[in-house]
Amino acid sequence: MLGLICVDVDGTLVGTGNLIRDDVWAALAxxxxxxxxxxxxxxxxxxxxxxxxxxxxxADGWHIFQxxxxxxxxxxxxxxxxxxxxxPLEDLIAHARxxxxxxxxxxxxxxxxxxxxxxxxxxxxLLGVTYAxxxxxxxxxTRVRAQWVVPRAxxxxxxxxxxxxxxxxxxxxxxxxxxxxxxxxxxxxxxGSAIRRIAAGYGxxxxxxxxxxxxxxxxSALRVVGHPVAMGNADPPAREAARxxxxxxxxGGLAEAVRLALTL
Length: 264
Known about the structure:
Blueprint: E1 4-7, H1 22-33, E2 37-40, H2 48-57, E3 62-65, E4 70-73, H3 86-99, E5 102-106, E6 111-113, H4 118-127, E7 145-151, H5 155-159, E8 166-171, E9 179-186, H6 191-201, E10 209-213, H7 219-224, E11 227-230, H8 236-241, E12 244-245, H9 253-261
Parallel strand pairs: 1-2, 1-10, 10-11, 11-12
Antiparallel strand pairs: 3-4, 5-6, 5-7, 7-9, 8-9
């Protein structure tokens, strides 16, 4: 039996309609009852729905948010943040305003936008937070991540632009299928780097860790764990990085992965 299961949110835990199947929750609870640690491993911030998911998965455990930039304890909110470098972030904000694209900027628990509007409002609803747009300059605290929110047709253009000192983590969500979320973190920060830190904190070697994901931003995590699992709806890079393959998110593929973890 493995010691840690890391679970992506959009397209892995959460399916079409922003819904999570009852059998998925039951499988996760069953694994936790047998002593397996469960870590949410998401691009979302530690607020709203994502924080509630983490608390339900493992109430006193460590969870990965913001593509590894935030590692937060669900019980007391203790954080091991990875701050963004100031100059690259300021350059991104200026470029967003010049191009009219939506860039979101995050601390561990707050967010701001360069371009209020439909995408920002829909994303707030997906996250389960109140839509109250504010400028990035008003954020207080350590800024850990920025995120482009753009039409899918613009993904290649945005990814191809200079992002010096930063790593990019593109992903999608079945809740907003027309949009690409392209996170930017400090270079070297990813879901994979965060899993290494959590596993070490639990005293686990990576051969006792499973990651279940579906997107390109999950590849760094799939590559570091001993047991990488791709959902049936996974993008090609995630499928190629996985050893195991399970069903579609809407068919309960995550529950299948959890059952597998209990046999390894």
